[in-house]
């Protein structure tokens, strides 16, 4: 692969599919810690892995191993950082992430600051570091940073009423590529927990979808797993979906298998 073009090597399938208006799906990762997860995601039909540093004990070292392994099989590695400090997203990107999810975004000003942290000058303020996404090729600096700026995805997570009210100004920010409605946290804040199709939550999604359409951005959702609600929001315009997490899927599979075996003698 020594003569391969870096543009061929750096393949952000999720960004490309979103640009075509296609639905992209990913799995939240809080438990799995080995590189095999990349091949598992690819085999089972996912587009991206969501490495959750906010609600797990993942180290930067583990995050990097998982991210590079995902790249090698065409799965987009996303990282949800635990906060808004520059070093958090900088190290995740240096370790191989192709996108950053920022929790708790509440304003356009905040979104602009966070988007800039993920991109090199002149469009951002990211500090120069390693580039595993380009296979560590010795490219001209201007070319390498331009490729990285083009391929990275920044996701602003809207998780409270204030954020929904400011969806328009957040969507208008250059470099804020995706606006994600965090249904669980938003539902808790609205005092309607566990009701993914409550009219107030539906109205929040409508507001964000409309803002994203006006500004050419992508709407995403997390925390919604019921089929009827998923159908509603995808038909509304959501194009990036967090489908669940590894722990929940493992527990569901384990429970199903145990119930099957416990019932063998009853058949």
Fold topology:
Layout: H1 6-9, H2 13-19, E1 24-29, H3 36-44, E2 48-52, H4 60-72, E3 76-80, H5 86-94, E4 99-102, H6 108-117, H7 141-151, E5 153-158, H8 161-165, H9 167-171, E6 178-182, H10 183-189, H11 199-215, E7 218-222, H12 227-236, E8 240-245, H13 246-262
Parallel strand pairs: 1-2, 1-8, 2-3, 3-4, 4-5, 5-6, 6-7, 7-8
Helix content: 40-55%
Overall geometry comes to: globular
Instruction: Identify the CATH architecture.
Output: Alpha-Beta Barrel
Distance between the termini: 56 Å
The CATH class turns out to be: Alpha Beta
Write down the secondary-structure element order: HHEHEHEHEHHEHHEHHEHEH
Rg calc: 19 Å
Strand content: 15-25%
Q: Count of DSSP E strands?
A: 8
Rounded mean pLDDT score: 94
Please indicate the count of domains: 1
- Lateral arrangement of strands in the main beta sheet: 1-2-3-4-5-6-7-8
Main beta sheet: 8 strands, parallel, barrel
What's the CATH topology name? TIM Barrel
> Helices and strands: which structural class?
alpha/beta
| The named CATH superfamily | Phosphoenolpyruvate-binding domains
Low-confidence stretches: 1-8
Number of helices: 13
Describe this structure in words.
The protein is an alpha/beta fold and 267 residues long. The protein contains 13 helices and eight strands. The radius of gyration is 19 Å and the shape is globular. The N terminus is likely disordered.
Jot down its keywords.
eight-stranded parallel barrel; TIM Barrel; alpha/beta; 267 residues; 13 helices
